[in-house]
UniProtKB/TrEMBL annotation:
Cofactor(s) it depends on: a divalent metal cation
InterPro entries: HARBI1_dom (IPR027806)
Gene Ontology MF annotations: metal ion binding
Organism expressing this protein natively: Acropora cervicornis
Ranges for domain DDE Tnp4: 1-86
Superkingdom field: Eukaryota
Keyword annotations from UniProtKB, A to Z: Metal-binding
Descriptive protein name: DDE Tnp4 domain-containing protein
Length: 98
């Protein structure tokens, strides 16, 4: 997921990753019906992604200067931070089935 001004699709193709961008109005004042639903779905997902990013930012190691001697370990640091966030309680309560 990226903002509409970011064009990284060519970098993602080799990794078989789909880039999700909010649809543009292209000179129109309103979206067509299908784009309204797509925009709504993306916006809902984006809220949760921003919350997860906020939880990852809580790890202070990521807010300090990173010494050059550990730059090679940054992938591991982010992986551990992400794994720890995944172990925290859910951001969205699980729905109860009736």
């Amino acid at each position: 997921m990226a903002d509409s001004g970011i064009n990284i699709q060519d970098l993602l193709l080799s990794r078989e990753v789909k880039l999700v961008i909010l649809p543009l109005t292209k000179g129109r004042t309103q979206f067509v019906k299908g784009k309204v639903e797509k925009t709504s779905n993306i916006a809902r997902a984006r809220v949760h992604i921003e919350r997860v990013i906020g939880r990852i930012k809580d790890f202070r190691i990521l807010s300090n200067r990173i010494p050059l001697n550990i730059v090679d370990q940054l992938d591991d640091i982010f992986t551990v931070a992400g794994a720890l966030v995944n172990l925290t309680p859910p951001l969205v309560p699980l729905s109860k089935k009736a």
